[in-house]
Write a structure and sequence with these properties.
271 residues; MetI-like fold; 13 helices; globular
Length: 271
């Protein structure tokens, strides 16, 4: 009871924080609300609202190009994250278990793909692939997405490993388990939430990514690239509908990520 009264007194002492927080959330989410409202507009005009309809959402499922681009986005993001989980988890174990000269520099270097602007990463990868005589395709897009999804998973897992004691793992090996068995049955269950949370965050970033994809794709359109192409013909209810679906999927993934990383595990700030 006393704790509750203390919280109320603190809230009364800083009323501006509540106002400030409300304004921040209004600024962040009001544009999404406007887009959602106009996606229900029965008129194709973006200047006036004539009524509510779900026809634009129904037409999305009849648009073969859009469905293909959605499938491509899911395909790229899924494969990129699958490889990122394997490489990121391995990299986290390497940085956590192995001591070597220049380790801090290597850790900083691994963060560059998520620190640098996407246009720099995309242009660098494009030049790299062209010098290797690689034809731009789905696989070049996947490799490009792996450049930033792998560090995301790696640093999520590394933050979790840094707080784990190796006593249980050592005890398992003392009882006859080999290092692989000790990792599978002892270490992995303890870092599983970090792996899943990192994978969901990486999938969200990959699914919404447009800059690197724009540099590394030829005719292989993902959903953000398709949406960008539609915007060149102006705003329409179909654009509003797609712009509502994409953030909706991202928010769902973020909620799932919060569920799996809500145990106090650290996360990194991404671009």
């Amino acid at each position: 009871m006393k704790k509750t009264s203390n919280l109320k007194s603190k809230n009364k002492s800083f009323p501006f924080l509540s106002i400030y927080g409300t304004l921040v959330y209004f600024y962040l989410y009001f544009p999404l609300l406007v887009v959602f409202v106009y996606s229900l507009n029965s008129s194709r005009s973006t200047m006036k609202f004539e009524g509510i309809t779900f026809d634009w959402y129904m037409k999305l499922f009849q648009n073969k190009e859009l469905l293909n681009s959605l499938f491509h986005s899911l395909q790229v993001s899924g494969l990129a994250v699958l490889f990122a989980v394997v490489m990121g988890t391995s990299g986290a174990l390497f940085l956590n278990r192995i001591e070597f000269k220049g380790k801090d520099f290597f850790r900083t270097l691994a963060m560059l793909p998520i620190i640098l602007p996407g246009i720099i990463v995309g242009l660098s990868l494009l030049i790299f692939f062209l010098n290797l005589k690689l034809q731009l395709s789905m696989w070049t897009v996947i490799l490009g997405h792996m450049s930033f999804t792998t560090p995301v998973v790696m640093f999520q897992v590394l933050a979790r490993l840094a707080r784990l004691s190796r006593n249980l793992e050592n005890a398992a090996m003392d009882l006859g388990a080999n290092p692989f068995q000790a990792f599978i049955y002892v270490t992995f269950p303890m870092i599983k939430r970090a792996v899943i949370g990192g994978a969901l965050l990486a999938f969200t970033m990959s699914f919404d990514e447009i800059i690197i994809t724009y540099f590394l794709t030829s005719t292989y359109n993902t959903l953000p690239i398709y949406l960008y192409g539609m915007l060149r013909f102006g705003l329409s209810p179909e654009v509003y509908a797609i712009s509502t679906v994409v953030p909706g999927l991202s928010i769902l993934l973020i909620i799932l990520m919060a569920k799996y990383t809500g145990s106090g595990e650290e996360s990194i700030v991404v671009r």
